[in-house]
Design a protein that fits this description.
about 230 residues, alpha/beta, five-stranded parallel sheet, 10 strands
Length: about 230
């Protein structure tokens, strides 16, 4: 039966994967992965042997039609990313959209997404929030920050450890320094850490921002989430 499953994978602890996710990966015809090497390790851990096909930001435009056609011909596929839920700051949108436009059934399983535990553990309001993902590196960055200046919901960003210091300073400059904030790293891993910044999140950050939080990690482990909200 033609169907595309969106399968979240662990963002740290392998025990976070659901029984249902494992079952789907065991039963589909093939698996579409952001990095076949990383996903190969995951599948091997759960003794799953399925054909793996690469789908990432560098090739998604070239392979999306080919993958969609295979599903249209009657196969079932599972889309996974290196960690978390595909499509959330990870490849997936183009394939999911094309599958829907082609009349294919698409089902997304519930599962790990890094920003949710980071937001809940921050102690910041989570009844209403705005997920921004990664800010543009250069073009459009200042415009995006200015657009968020009057946003009163908790804001959530992803950032790499190599840019976190600069990003925090820019957030204070454009959004105002009188904000509560938290920074989380290594969610669901042994060295998980959440840093709660004081009400005045303005520079100097280094006095409140320990060097240990700036240690670089492998690319898939460097998501940072500083939710910010104006004081009521």
């Amino acid at each position: 039966m033609s169907k595309l499953y969106i399968v979240p994978t662990p963002i740290g602890n392998l025990e976070d994967i659901t029984f249902r996710a494992v079952k789907v990966l065991q039963t589909v015809d093939f698996v579409i992965a952001e990095d076949t090497r990383t996903s190969g390790v995951l599948l091997k851990h759960f003794q799953i042997n399925k054909p793996l096909y690469a789908y990432h930001k560098f090739n998604e435009h070239q392979v999306v039609m080919r993958l969609t056609e295979r599903i249209r011909q009657g196969e079932t596929a599972a889309l996974i990313s290196d960690a978390g839920t595909p499509g959330i700051s990870d490849p997936g949108f183009l394939l999911i959209r094309e599958a829907i436009l082609s009349g294919l059934e698409v089902e997304c399983l519930p599962g790990p997404t890094a920003f949710v535990p980071a937001l809940v553990a921050s102690g910041l309001p989570c009844d209403r929030f705005c997920f921004e993902g990664f800010l543009p590196h250069k073009k459009g960055r200042q415009k995006r920050l200015n657009e968020l200046r009057d946003e009163e919901r908790t804001l959530i960003f992803y950032e790499s450890p190599m840019r976190i210091q600069k990003t925090l300073e820019q957030l204070a400059e454009h959004l105002g320094g009188q904000r509560r904030a938290s920074i989380s790293r290594e969610i669901s891993k042994i060295h998980e850490q959440t840093l709660i910044l004081a009400d005045n999140a303005a520079p100097p950050y280094r006095a409140k921002y320990p060097k240990s939080m700036n240690k670089p990690f492998a690319e898939r482990l460097t998501n940072w989430l500083p939710p910010l909200r104006k004081n009521p």
